[in-house]
Design brief:
By secondary structure, the protein is α/β, with parallel strands linked by helices. It folds into 2 domains: 223 residues, 3-Layer(aba) Sandwich (Rossmann fold), CATH 3.40.50.300; 70 residues, Alpha-Beta Plaits, CATH 3.30.70. It contains 12 helices and 14 strands. The strands form 3 sheets. Strands 6-7-8-3-9-10 form a 6-stranded mixed sheet, with helices on both faces. Strands 2-1-4-5 form a 4-stranded antiparallel sheet, with helices on one face. A hairpin with a 2-residue loop joins strand 9 and strand 10. Helix 3 packs across helix 4. The structure holds adenosine-5'-triphosphate and magnesium ion. The site of magnesium ion has 5 residues, from helix 1. The site of magnesium ion (MG) has 5 residues, from helix 1.
Length: 337
């Protein structure tokens, strides 16, 4: 299968010296959903902007559908759609007018815009509201309209920079469904950035975890999680007495790597995989030895654990600076006015 996007040793140093992207390489296959997961300031938007030709890389090569982005910007522009982190919708215009303008920007005929516009608005559940001005749309509708606008010229590759930023969980899930439908029905290649690990996990065929301008891990979400360790089962027995034979039997179960007692009186059982299947066996084993179980839990590694493993920080922790960052932006905006 051909690569839809190939990036080699991309570096971007902004004027003033910020090294936003520090030598990254990756390739995206056709019809793949490729997720770029990382905290605030990791270099996600900078990477996207370089790949689509909006920003000039400091060094490195980028090919989109085989075309060099610097030498053949026209080919790249025609074959991609881009929904930026900040929506580009004009909220004084209706949904339809926004879409129409975007179509004209790509030199589509009126008939094409009508046909294609109806298709994307229906696909994104906005058809009924097409004649309302966008200032009456909810945050989720605005984002959907923005993505719809990026699709009007039938791009082969769609770039979504934080498609669900700031939206509530329910709305976020709706957008995930639209993104999955795009891939399924239109065989589209999708490159999305996000700092929501669940989003990267659910949507992406492969995920690159990016931190401080570098890719620290890249694989299928399942493989990334499996590589850092298996499932963790925590058990609190109803009594601490007479446990030895139970523990010995637990250690002998297939797939069990380790059984150890934590200071909080809870046993932690690390298993290679399929922790859920082991739970009934553990309960049965304890019962056979006349030991009751107070509580039992299964914890599967998340992409946050993967991020923690490679960077020593949690995404959420690194995100702590994000609120600060947004607050600073709002402040400076207020001061400027
Ligand atoms: N135009 C610019 N000039 C100078 N520095 C910039 C510019 N744009 C971004 N940066 C810096 O480059 C780094 C990476 O920024 P980028 O916007 O690519 O990160 P991001 O991963 O998209 O973050 P976020 O989650 O906040 O969108 C940050 O340190 C940022 O402050
Ligand atoms: Mg960004």
């Amino acid at each position: 299968m051909n690569a839809a996007v190939e990036v080699e040793n991309l570096v971007k140093v902004y004027k003033g010296g910020v090294r936003a992207v520090d030598g990254i390489s990756f390739s995206i296959k056709e019809r793949e959903i490729f997720g770029f997961l990382g905290p605030n300031g990791a270099g996600k938007s900078t990477t996207i902007k370089c790949v689509i030709g909006l920003l000039r890389p400091t060094s490195g090569t980028i090919r989109v559908l085989g075309a060099d982005v610097r030498r053949d910007p026209g080919v790249v522009k025609r074959s991609i759609g881009y929904a930026a982190q900040e929506t580009a919708v004009d909220d004084r215009l209706t949904g339809w007018e926004n879409l129409y303008l975007q179509g004209r920007f790509y030199h589509l005929s009126r008939a094409e815009i009508r046909r294609r516009g109806e298709e994307v608005l229906k696909l994104f559940g906005l058809w009924e509201r097409r004649n309302d001005t966008a200032d009456t749309y909810s945050g989720g509708m605005l984002k959907r309209l923005d993505i719809a606008c990026a699709l009007i010229h039938r791009p082969k590759i769609l770039f979504l920079d934080e498609p669900t930023l700031g939206l509530d969980v329910q709305t976020r899930k709706t957008i995930w469904e639209y993104i999955e439908a795009l891939r399924a029905e239109h065989e589209m290649t999708i490159f999305l950035t996000t700092h929501y690990m669940e989003e990267a996990d659910v949507l992406s065929d492969r995920v690159a975890i990016i931190d401080r301008g570098r890719i620290v891990a890249l694989d299928r979400p399942g493989a990334l999680k499996a590589a850092i360790g298996g499932d963790l089962i925590t058990v609190r027995f109803s009594s601490g007495d007479g446990l030895e034979p139970v523990l010995a039997a637990l250690r002998d179960l297939p797939g069990v790597r380790e059984v150890k007692l934590a200071p909080d009186g809870i046993y932690r059982i690390v298993v290679e995989r399929d922790g859920d299947r082991l739970i009934p066996r553990i309960v049965r084993l304890a019962g056979e030895h006349g030991i009751g179980i107070h509580s039992i839990r299964l914890k599967r590694p998340t992409l946050d654990d993967v991020y923690l493993h490679y960077t020593g920080r949690e995404i959420r922790e690194a995100e702590g600076s994000r609120e600060e960052h947004i607050r600073t932006r709002v402040m400076s905006w207020r001061i400027r006015r």
